[in-house]
């Protein structure tokens, strides 16, 4: 499947299927959640020219899971990602990440900050919504039948 941004975006990974897309409301970023049998779930962040800024892989505990919700902070370059395993991550995105081949320090950030270390939900995250000014965020899961 091809994705266009005014130009064709480079594929996030060979054979990946885009499952969700979220534009930043102010900055020229677009987050694309994708899934492939080979790599599992990933979220790729592109800038306006179409360069890959960051590639965020699914949590190690649920590497085969995919992103189930995306939400940008209303003003900051901060992406909230809800995962199928119930994790919620808030990942800072930087224009400078593209200088490192689209690989930012996301993994190091996750280890140091503890972001996503605790599962907030038992079921896939289905809703992420920031408050109007971005001071709060609510998350909700998809209740599964028992």
From TrEMBL:
Matching entries from SUPFAM superfamilies are given as:
WD40 repeat-like
Ranges for domain IFT140 first beta-propeller: 2-142
Domain of life of the source: Eukaryota
Give the matching Pfam families: Beta-prop_IFT140_1st
Protein name per its UniProtKB record = IFT140 first beta-propeller domain-containing protein
């Amino acid at each position: 499947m091809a994705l266009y941004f005014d130009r064709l975006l480079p594929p996030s990974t060979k054979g990946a299927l885009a499952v969700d897309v979220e534009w930043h409301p102010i900055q020229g970023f677009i987050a694309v959640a994708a899934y492939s049998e080979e790599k599992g779930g990933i979220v790729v962040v592109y800038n306006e020219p179409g360069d890959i800024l960051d590639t965020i892989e699914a949590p190690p505990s649920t590497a085969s899971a995919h992103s189930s919700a995306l939400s940008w902070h209303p003003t900051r370059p901060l992406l909230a990602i809800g995962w199928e395993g119930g994790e919620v991550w808030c990942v800072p995105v930087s224009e400078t990440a593209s200088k490192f081949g689209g690989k930012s320090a996301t993994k190091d950030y996750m280890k140091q900050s503890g972001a996503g270390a605790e599962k907030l939900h038992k079921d896939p995250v289905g809703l992420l919504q920031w408050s109007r000014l971005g001071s709060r965020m609510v998350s909700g899961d998809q209740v599964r039948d028992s």
